[in-house]
Specification:
Layout lengths: L1 H24 L17 H70 L13 H9 L3 E3 L5 E3 L5 E3 L9 E6 L1 E4 L2 E4 L1 E4 L10
Parallel strand pairs: 3-7
Antiparallel strand pairs: 1-5, 2-4, 4-7, 5-6
Length: 197
């Protein structure tokens, strides 16, 4: 956007310079231009040309300064963007550190001992719950909760589910205030072998 502003500014300056030069070379109050082919370089015209050259030089300097300032602002924005990205990654990593450090061990244990109860692993996901809470996100429903289908909040696994029909939440969704970030996935039935209790 700054580049477009610079180009627009340059175009305006160029038009002004051309206009001024034309005004000097062809003034409106020219008397008879055919009188003895009067010299175009009269002292008055020469002074106007010098003034125009000075004005052009000042405009070039101004344009150069604005271009440098624009470049500085671009660099500052780039640095701020990189800093924000770095801060976000650091903050997120700090909140998920427990999960990230324990995950490889848990994965290895699950592969080595498939009979290990999954409920022993649930506490590892506390850091994810904390992260979601710190961002101010709220869950859309609870897993396996029976609700009335709402197409604004839910994504049905079948096209023939009608609004208001009773469905089960298979996978929860998330929202930020009124904005749905990810709709809850719903179905008419629970997974085989599970009930609502």
């Amino acid at each position: 956007m700054l580049e477009q502003i610079n180009q627009f500014g340059f175009a305006i300056i160029l038009v002004i310079i051309v206009y001024i030069i034309l005004r000097v070379l062809f003034p409106e109050n020219n008397q008879d231009t055919s009188i003895n082919n009067q010299s175009v370089t009269s002292p008055d015209t020469e002074q106007k040309i010098k003034d125009l050259e000075l004005q052009c030089q000042r405009l070039r300097e101004e344009l150069k300064q604005q271009s440098q300032q624009c470049q500085r602002l671009r660099e500052e924005l780039k640095q701020q963007s990189q800093q924000l990205q770095s801060d976000f990654q650091q903050e997120t990593f700090t909140q998920l550190q427990t999960l990230l450090s324990n995950y490889p061990t848990v994965k290895k244990m699950a592969l080595a001992k498939p009979e290990l109860p999954a409920k022993n692993l649930v506490s590892l996901f506390t850091s994810l719950d904390n992260l979601i809470t710190s961002w101010g996100y709220t869950a859309i429903g609870e897993t396996w909760e029976q609700v009335n289908y709402n197409p604004q909040l839910h994504q049905a696994d079948s096209d023939d589910i009608q609004e208001g029909e009773l469905v089960y939440i298979r996978f929860i969704g998330y929202q930020d205030g009124d904005k749905v970030l990810y709709p809850a996935k719903v179905s008419r039935t629970l997974p085989p072998g599970f009930n609502n209790t």
